[in-house]
Amino acid sequence: MQIKIISDNGNVRVCLIGELNSKVAAEQAGELDKVLESADKAIEIDCSELAYISSAGLRFFMHVKRATETQGGSVRLTHLNEDVAEIFRLSGFLNIFDVE
Description:
Blueprint: E1 2-8, E2 11-20, H1 22-27, H2 29-34, E3 42-53, H3 55-70, E4 74-78, H4 82-91, E5 98-99
Parallel strand pairs: 2-3, 3-4, 4-5
Antiparallel strand pairs: 1-2
């Protein structure tokens, strides 16, 4: 799993590359928490290269959403592939997140 965080003009784009599962979430906790440093801004999470997401990955998304809403920011998910979109649909997360 690779995480790229790109800041530009007060907006933040987070690119998730690979699989986001419980092992990765634990190993990359510090890197994932860097996303929350921008919780007061508009955060785009680009999932174009996210191959798989587990329940631990879904918890990460919910954690980011709660933190950003608390601090006045927003979260938008972009480029969900069919497999990841299906997981979001089955979990009800498509109704919770702004998805493009």
